[in-house]
Amino acid sequence: MNKIIPIFILSLLFVAVSCQKKDDNGNLGGFWKLLLIEPVNGDAIDTKEKQCFWKFQLNLMQVGGMYGTYGRFEHVGDSLFISLIDYDKQPLRQYGLYANSERFGVEHLDRNGMVLQSDSARLTFRKF
């Protein structure tokens, strides 16, 4: 009886760990603070003091705070494709988004920083 309990607990832990989905997003995964928006036609907008965040996990993203806008993304080579799901709930330009679906060129991405370029703006982030 004493040997059965530890074996049972170990088997439950093995099942719990093996059932989790793997996040294959590499450096992109996690929380990013938007620092600077450089619109193609306009002056740069410093967002360092604002709470402008992008979050990536699995194939989902969130822009904004706890009740922000959600969407899906695909990171392929040097491109990041974003398609927002509930984009009409908040103004998105404050987060550097100008459409509900956009393609960003990934100019720079490492574990500390990211720079994205779309047809509308260049966005600079730091990992949070």
Structure description:
The protein is mainly beta and 128 residues long. The protein has a single domain, classed as Lipocalin (Beta Barrel). The protein has 1 helix and 9 strands. It has an 8-stranded antiparallel beta barrel. A hairpin with a 5-residue loop joins strand 1 and strand 2. The mean pLDDT is 84.
Class derived from helix and strand content? mainly beta
- Following the backbone from N to C, one meets helices and strands in this order, namely HEEEEEEEEE
- Summed over residues and divided by their number, the pLDDT gives a mean of 84
What fold name stands as the CATH topology?
Lipocalin
Label the CATH architecture.
Answer: Beta Barrel
- Strand content of the residues, in percent? 35-45%
- What percentage of residues falls in helices of 4 or more residues? 10-25%
Count of structural domains:
1
How many H/I helical runs? Answer: 1
Number of strands: 9
- How are the strands of the biggest sheet laid out side by side? 1-3-4-5-6-7-8-9
Q: Give the low-pLDDT segments.
A: none
CATH class: Mainly Beta
